[in-house]
Amino acid sequence: MDFVSIRVITGDVPRLVDFYERATGVRATWGGEDFAELRTPTATLAIASTRTVPLFAPGSARPADNHSVITEFLVDDVDRVHRDLTGLVTEFVAEPTTMPWGNRSLLLRDPDGNLVNFFTPVTPEAVAKFGR
Q1: CA-CA 20 to 30 A from 120: which of 33, 37, 74, 101?
Q2: Which residues, at least 6 apart from 17, have a Cβ–Cβ distance to it below 8 Å?
Q3: How many CB atoms are closer than 10 A to CB 83?
Q4: What DSSP designation does 131 have?
């Protein structure tokens, strides 16, 4: 089995795609007006319209209603990312902080309120874990 992607359902695909393109520097590949993917070498963030939900199961997903998942991006310099995102992000949940497990993390909310974590391994153990 391969883990392929995380899909975020939104009421405004262009707005959310624009945010993630600007925040990550990754260009989206569009599969129509209701679906786009931001692909990295290790994972894909799919963004889909509420109009796609009934194709799976009507009412099974609600946009801007996530209270349990954090989407994470491994970056070279989380402090630089924080500086770069100031002005784009409206809600930083936590400024760059070194966590007990060795990652320096920046927690924020995307335009739909979903939690996003940008992090950089900083301890030897964390660096070894991520091969950086």
Answers
A1: 37
A2: 28, 30, 36, 38, 47
A3: 11
A4: T
